[in-house]
Amino acid sequence: MIKRMRAVLLPGLLMWLAACQPRPDPTLRIGTNLWPGYEPLYVARDQRVFQSLDVQLIEYRAAGQVLNGLRKGTINMAALTLDEAVRISASGIPIEVIWLFNISDGADQLLARPGISQISELSGKRIGIESNALGAYLWQRFLSLNHLNAADYELVGLDLAAHAQALTNGEVDAVMTFEPEKSKLLRLGAKALFTSKEVPGEVLDVLIVRKTGDNAPTTAQIQQFIRQYHQHFQQMQQNWQGWYPQLNKRLKLSEQELVQTYGELQIPSVTMQIQLLSNQVKMQKIMQDYQQVLLDIGMISQPCDCTNLINTRYLEAL
C-alpha cells in the first residue's frame, strides 16, 4: 500500500517542485535592419560589452521584417523608427521606447535618377518606397511641404536592398531611401530632391522593448542592458571617427561616404535623450502627426494610445 502511494505521489511532487523553480530570464533578442544609427549595437556585441546578459542581435533585411518578428514573438526588443513604434502600439502590442539612437538630419533622402533635377519633373513618375511606416510618412511629408497631389505619382513597393538596382534598371524614377543604398545611388549620379533635414526632429530611431508576454525582458535585464550599453556608448562618443572601421563592417561604405552619413545624423547623449524624450508636449505632437499619416494611408485602423509609449526611467537611472 505504501509503495503504491509513493508511486502516485512521487510524480506529483516532482511536478510541484519543477513548478516552484524560478523561470529563467528570457534571452534579449533585438531585431534590427541595416542602418548607421544601429551599428553601435553591433560594435558593442563585438566588443563583448554585454556581460552576464544573454543578448542576441537578429539581423533583418528590412524594417517590415523587424515589425513581423515583434508581432510573432521572435524578438522581444527592436531598433525601429518612432513612427514604426506608434504603428506597433496602435496594433495592440504592448511596447515602450527606452533609448534614442539618433535623429535623422538629412540621412533619409528622396533620390531621383540622372536626368531629373527638379521636383516638378517627378510628376507622373514612379516612386519606389519601402512598404513600412517611415517611407510612407516621409513621402507624405514631401507631398505636404511641396503642396503636391499624391494622385500625380505612381508608388512602387520596394525593399531597401532593391533601390539601387530598380533605379538603374528604370523600374522606378526615384526612391525614398537611406544607407547603404543611398551612397550607391549617389555614386550613380542620383539627385537628392528632398531629405529628412527638411523635417527637423521628426525622424527618430529608437530602441523599443515588449512590456508583457512570456518572453518579455525583466526590469532588471533592461536596467543592466542600458547600463552596459551606455558605458560603451560613452566611449564611442568621445571619438566617433576612431570607431568608424568597426561601424562600417556591415555598411561597407567608403571613408568619405561614412563621414558624410554620420554627419547627417544627430546622435544624442543620454542627457539630450532625456531632455527630448521627456518633453511630453513635443513628443505627443510628433506621435500624433505620425498617427494621422498612418491613419490616412491605412497603415493603422485605430488611433494609438501613446501616452505612456516613451519610458525615460532607465535613462534617468544612469
TrEMBL record:
Q: Check the record and name the SMART domains matching this protein.
A: PBPb
Entry keyword Acyltransferase: no
Instruction: Write out the annotated subcellular location.
Output: Periplasm
User: InterPro entries, per this entry?
Assistant: Solute-binding_3/MltF_N, SsuA/THI5
Instruction: Tell me which residues make up the Solute-binding protein family 3/N-terminal domain.
Output: 27-244
Keywords associated with the record: Signal
* Keyword Signal assigned: yes
Signal peptide range in chain numbering: 1-20
Main location group: periplasm
Per the record, the similarity remark reads: Belongs to the bacterial solute-binding protein SsuA/TauA family.
Q: What name does UniProt use for this protein? A: ABC transporter substrate-binding protein
